[in-house]
Amino acid sequence: MCSKTTRFDGKVIIVTGSSSGIGAAAAIMFAERGGSVAIHGRRQDKLDEVAAKIESVSGRKPVSVTGDITCEKDRETLVNETLKAFGRIDVLVNNAGTCEPSGWQTDIKLLQPVLDLHVIAPLDLSQRCMPELLKNKGNIVMISSIGGLMAPRGYLHYSIAKGGMQTMMRTLAAEVAKLGVRVNAVNPGYIETDILRDEELKKRIAANPNFTATFNPNGIAGKPDDVAEAICFLSSDAARMITGSTNTVDGGKTAFLQF
Ligand SMILES: NC(=O)c1ccc[n+]([C@@H]2O[C@H](COP(=O)([O-])OP(=O)(O)OC[C@H]3O[C@@H](n4cnc5c(N)ncnc54)[C@H](O)[C@@H]3O)[C@@H](O)[C@H]2O)c1
Ligand SMILES: *[C@@H]1O[C@H](CO)[C@@H](O)[C@H](O)[C@H]1NC(C)=O
Ligand SMILES: *[C@@H]1O[C@H](CO)[C@@H](O)[C@H](O)[C@H]1NC(C)=O
């Protein structure tokens, strides 16, 4: 693919949950490729580190907003600050997320916050950005999960929420396709980030330090940059024909039969 079309000069990209992991890697990659980025997360110190990295690779300061993405006011501030600094929005990456174990016995009250984070927040942000995306023929990337496509035993609420995100991606894509806006999903498998630190996974990683590589059929322990590459491609003009699509970055986990 022509590298020129995967550059982001003059484009403005919002990445939620970009203080670490996949979001941070994507924000840095967008900046390296010419984009102006708005980063967002809950921890100021970690956001500052990412902001410094972005400035060092691109020579440009990102917009940096601290807040909780499940809080409506914080979402409004993120969009406002981005528009105030850069005057436009071309790409929204709905990436912020957490992953806690749950199952059929888990208190039903614990589902709502998971839906707030993975469904309500991304939909509300998509709505808020849509006027700009329509104007600029922009696009949205939803960071879902292979757990939104197939059953991750032990993660019931997460799976319900990511499945909702997946359906939202397709239906939004269908609504705005004719208007020139694209909406796609990236579905990571196990990628080595802070999210893999819940108690169940800690146990598995303690038993096998090479757990992620062994889990993935291709034997590779996926890194945040592996997912960031997919995000950058999908949100670039090189992907103009791609919308409503599911894009696994999982070393083959969901495609292969297990033998
Ligand atoms: N790492 C994996 O194996 C994996 C697999 C499938 C899907 N994902 C998805 O990728 C996305 C990024 O996760 P990651 O692996 O980089 O983990 P991470 O923990 O490094 O990053 C998640 C980011 O989201 C932010 N965040 C979480 N809740 C938030 C809130 N309420 N308000 C604002 N920010 C919030 C965190 O602060 C952090 O910056 C998530 O949506 C996750 O579900 C990750
Ligand atoms: C965002 O901007 C709008 C329009 O300028 C303004 O009415 C609103 O109060 C702002 N919200 C926040 C949270 O700053
Ligand atoms: C980790 O697992 C992969 C895939 O099974 C293997 O290729 C690699 O050699 C392993 N690494 C270590 C340190 O055991």
Automatic annotation (TrEMBL):
Segments crossing the lipid bilayer: 12-31
InterPro entries associated with the record: NAD(P)-bd_dom_sf, Sc_DH/Rdtase_CS, SDR_fam
Gene3D superfamilies assigned: NAD(P)-binding Rossmann-like Domain
GO molecular function: oxidoreductase activity
Keywords: Membrane, Oxidoreductase, Transmembrane, Transmembrane helix
Pfam family, one: adh_short_C2
SUPFAM superfamilies from the UniProt entry: NAD(P)-binding Rossmann-fold domains
Record's protein name: Uncharacterized protein LOC100898643
Lineage per the UniProt record: Eukaryota, Metazoa, Ecdysozoa, Arthropoda, Chelicerata
